[in-house]
Amino acid sequence: MPRFLGCFLALAGVAQHASAQAPASGPDTIVFVNGDNLAGKFVSSSGSSVKFKSDVLGDITVAWSKVKELHTSSKVAVIRKGVQLGKHSETAAIPQGTLSMENQTLQVASPPQPPQSIPVGDSSAIVDQSTFDKALHHAPGFLHGWAGAVTLGGTLVEATQDDKTFNGAISLVRAEPGESWIAPRNRTIFDFSASYGELSQPGTPTAKTSIFHGDAERDEYLDHSIFVFGQAVYDHNFSQGLTLQQTYGGGIGWTVIQDPNQTLDLKGSVVYIRQQFEEPPDQDLIGSIFAEHYRRKFKRGLVADQQLSIQPAWNDTRAYSASFNTLLTLPVYKRLGASTGVIDTFLNDPPAGFKKNSFQFTLGLTYTLP
Fold first, then answer.
1. Threshold 0.70, pTM exceeds
2. What pLDDT was estimated at residue 89?
3. What distance in Å separates the CA atoms of residue 99 and residue 12, rounded to the nearest whole number?
């Protein structure tokens, strides 16, 4: 019994000594150039700004130029500009540890190694350690990681003439991985837009508008900017006599620009096209799609999204088509924004009595997905 009691007291003493030596894990702190300071939790940095969750103010985003000091108690990873990690990249060269920032210089400490100094301007991203590890080693399920927007608009007029119109669109993108500092592996894209309207008056036939477009695409990246893809596209336009146009094919694409504020993709594909009209004959075509997609974020949250595609048919050169659409979205409240857009489609071989061009101008409300 005395021997057991002696061992117990010895272990208790060791535990007490270790507890006294362990550093306390306190809150992260941020000090602004005007002397104000906040306690809370460092969230991340995009390179030009830092996100911080304050105990008092909640989530804030502030430019690095307005930060005098920053100190974290938990570990982070700092990704330098120009670095894009692959699936099997060696991460030992990525600075990881607790973070301090003074005089616009980051200090990453990971004892017993000496601290690493990095100018703030040389960093493209800073994330906490758990986010860094999870992004590299744990791919999210297919139902997670989707981004995009949903847009709705419409009008209702009741007078001598009754006019009802509706337009809506949904655009979804899932990129894996979702972090810009990891080389892209694949991307899934889904778009759907519809416009429907009826204009009626007693004693006259009802005039109807019915247009929809849907597409799905899967991209597989061969390197950081070149990818191969497969796609399926469906179009219906009552105003052009087009009952249904089905397009299936695949090709190669090039991500020309990819940064936090803008992206530009160029794509070319070989496709099979099945055209069904209100009046025969229907057509089976072999053709191509040459397309570009540009997205740009401006100041104050304004976002421009623009797409252009040209679709020649090789076995019937008269049966070509083209489309152009652009959408401008201005944030109004949190994720809700006001949007205005243009959709222009051209079909060179509509049935007799139908115009080749279909133009739409849209106004609506847009909800941006997380």
1. yes
2. 66
3. 33
